[in-house]
């Protein structure tokens, strides 16, 4: 497997280039890019149909940089310089353990001061370029797709927090042993936590910008399915622990690659399994028995589901129905993959279940209810 981008480059080209990027993080970034593309396309399409509308805003131009703006830019620059210069001066440490470097209090004071001055000076200079003798208020038009940058930041922040909270709830025993490490670790992210919290943040921002919740949910269905598919590539390639149960069954098809049927995830970032002979470094473990590579199954299935949603989106005329279909497909996919996936189980009234099974069942039922609601209110939304 490829816990870092450096491992992947070494595998492809046989050269060692020390880079401080883990494979999972890179694919999370790709997932956001994929979601950004799909969201933007849908926002543009719905605006062209007259479903969504641009928003008029008033803004003041020609003002010089205020003291608060200079201070905020200085603080932001200090944080970047404090960490960046320290990371460059301690590059080997940064490559081997970027998480510790970024989340610790270690940094370079002089680098922080230099970047603080640079950022404040840059803000001051840029504002002065457009300064007017008398600042004036102008009206600007913002199209729905132009707010995607704002939306993606909110989705990333709240999605990450939600993913961490749900993961720690799912692995409560481990969390109470090291709560600080559990909260600050970059690993251990639960998709549904990110979906719920990130989705709530997006709806909040969209509503503030004049987009009704059902319209925003419909926009997000295909994009979230695509982003999930892309993100799961990172789970598989890094071996982050989202694999399946032990699979010792013979391959059903002789031509099927071994890694697609049963895999031991060597060099996994979860550092689970037995030591690999002759391997030195941080990621030197391999599962003792092969397991179902469930992340790659989800990559394929969810990409197919995305294509289906993308194909039918123009035929969906009722608000809420697209997102309802997404919830149904998402719930079904995750529920059935849980049958062969490793996960913490809970037992209530003698019934064992995982967190994902519970939430996927709720999402499926919610999706059915949303579809029925859309049909029931067909006449009400005739001008959708």
From TrEMBL:
Q: Which residues cross the membrane?
A: 20-39, 60-82, 102-122, 186-206, 295-312, 318-337, 358-375
List the keywords (alphabetical): Cell membrane, Lipoprotein, Membrane, Transferase, Transmembrane, Transmembrane helix
The record ties this protein, via Pfam families, to: LGT
Coiled-coil portions:
none
Any one Gene Ontology molecular-function term assigned to this protein's record: phosphatidylglycerol-prolipoprotein diacylglyceryl transferase activity
Any Gene Ontology biological process: lipoprotein biosynthetic process
The record's GO CC annotations read: plasma membrane
Q: Which PANTHER family match?
A: PHOSPHATIDYLGLYCEROL--PROLIPOPROTEIN DIACYLGLYCERYL TRANSFERASE (PTHR30589:SF0), PROLIPOPROTEIN DIACYLGLYCERYL TRANSFERASE (PTHR30589)
What's the family?
Belongs to the Lgt family.
Name under which the protein is recorded: Phosphatidylglycerol:prolipoprotein diacylglycerol transferase
Organism, by scientific name, is Pedobacter duraquae
